[in-house]
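TODO from last week: model FprA family A-type flavoprotein.
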Amino acid sequence: MADTKISDSVIYIGADDHDIDLFESQYVVPNGVSYNSYVIIDEKIAVMDTADPRVTDVWFDNLEKALGGRKPDYLVVQHMEPDHAGNIKKLAEKYPEMKIVGNAKTFPMMKQFFTIDGLDDRSVVVKEGDTLSLGNHTLQFVMAPMVHWPEVMVTYEQSEKLLFSADGFGKFGALDVEEDWACEARRYYFNIVGKYGAQVQALLKKASALDIKMILPLHGPILKEDLGYYLGLYNTWSSYQPESKGVFVAYASIHGNTAKAAEKLGEMLKEKGAEKVVISDLSRSDMAENIEDAFRYDRIVLMASSYDGGVFPVMEDFLMHLKSKNYQNRKIGLVENGSWAPTAARVMKGYVENFKNVTIAEPVVTIRSTLNEASEKALGELAEVMAKGE
Ligand code: FEO
């Protein structure tokens, strides 16, 4: 667990979860995940979001310790997704005097999840730029719709210059595990918020007008130093620009022959000077990591077997994910394999042509069962084109 004392007035009351099998029922989290929550102690006390029902007991224990016998005056609800909102009803019932702070989109959603007696009389509805004084601390609310749900807002605390950033700047990984920030933050970003780059850009623009000393997200570590690094990565990611030069080779192989061709292409790319080559077997790797790598590098080669008059399903699944995350701005190579009627390239092209601002590299390579002289030559030509960035 994190150092609970963030400042003299701000206390971390969140909890780690190492037992969850899949976060949001789809993401593997080998190092767990944290559900962050904070309390600001002043003349008035504000609780900044609750936590997932999976950690209810720990969260309430942490809250009570932080309160030291006092009662919270406000619960600020920045995001209604259950990993943060799951304990709103319990908290509201425990402290019936507590006001609940949200925006116009928060409360209709809250009523969908919970029936809370007298909610309307306890609601404080805030809008962009509104402030709430706790005494020495002043909360300033900044709307952040679609980062990651429509009701999301972030909160800037003016006296200590803290940005409570909701899911923004979050990452997979519990706080009691030390690991590189960018790897799991990037996987989190592209899979969870990736579709909403324009909305993240809008939030970054608002954040640039604030003097921020610390970022306090709802998952992952509190960011205290070198904030330009994190803000810079978020700017790159949300503008759909590649972060690294290199080629991501994603393949879908039934019996291993497309896999062999992928290895061959990898060698060719390296020989021809590609800065970095990353090869992934879509059937046996984490889809979320593949999405992350697709966005990370400036070039991608999609290699797939034909199947049932279309493409091997795991490739179609990958392409559907890329489509839903607004994949764009990349150079894309296509390689299909087919033993009697190759159809994979047609299907892959159908997806790729609809991505924004992509270049499909020539030639599109067709392999008939295994590489032969002609298909290896074509693969070499594709490697020549893909080895170089724009
Ligand atoms: Fe961590 Fe969108 O909830």
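Done. The chain has a mean pLDDT of 97.
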